[in-house]
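Dear support,

We are seeing what looks like truncated structure output for some complexes. This example has two components. We would appreciate it if you could run it in full and send us the complete token output so we can diff it against ours.
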Amino acid sequence: MSKPLRSIIGLLLLVTTVSLATCQSMLNVIPGNQPPVSLEKTIRPL
Amino acid sequence: MNQTEQLRKPRPFQKKHGKGLLYTGRGLLLYILPLPLIPASILSFVYGDFTSIVTNVGACTAFLLAASLLRKGIAEEKQYLDKKIARPPKWPLKTIAAFIVSITTAWVAFVGVDHSFMTSVAFGLGAFAGMTLLYGFDPRREKMITGTHGYTAAEISQTIDDAQAQIIGIEQANKQIHNRSFNQRIRVICDHAREILAMLEEDPGDIRRARKFLNTYLDGALKVTEGYAGMQKKHQSEQLTQKFDNVLQTIESVFIEQKQKLLEDDVLDLDVKIEVLTAQLKHEGVI
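Here is the complete output from our reference environment:
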């Protein structure tokens, strides 16, 4: 594998994994973006 | 210009930007990628979610630590690549940074995002693969030019590092000397010394006599420069200035001769000269 190709794949992998994890973590902190607790409690499997 | 004149005029020393990575952006990406964790940390405090606070603040710190280690690792790798003879970096900083990024990414995915364990592991592995593909691993082998000099790369590298430290010491002492003629002469001596070190890196076969030379003259030059810098603060005397001038002349001429001998590969003659000039320096009270 040539070095530029390796670097591009590495860059894509790193940016995708780290930014996805960090951005999702940020969104998860905002209460509106989490599944409402009340809904979780009310909708129970029959 | 003939060869002797060329030897008398050293190339002025140009500082390499090996240390510090001031002029390259390699590794800065790791400072940018965890930026969403800063608002995440603030929001965690706002909503009072302890698990989120620990996860986001901890992950942000870990990413910044990894970024710092990665930049240091890249700087050390650059220094290693610039040198012809070099030891590998003491710590595999780039690899340590890759592990930190990998574990932190998996941790954020598992605790911060509530992904399943296996998905989080996949995130971690992806980040590790990304780090190693993009930045590579640390150099682990000694760089050596093959020869029959009988010294290891570590010994040669140590000799050169010590000599460079002595040159820096001479330059520091030179700053305290308030005499333009001496300043200029010391600068020239330092440039000669650096050229000799560059020649040694090219051909470590000369390291045996070069060590002898560096121990005697570079050390002598350092002692005499520091000594004069200290003495001139207390009292200026014509005799002291004259003595220092003589010693600098001797050192400069020996440095030029050393370069000549290194080029000619004349071992025996230089050994004799070193003995004679050591005696002269002792007579002048330098060593």
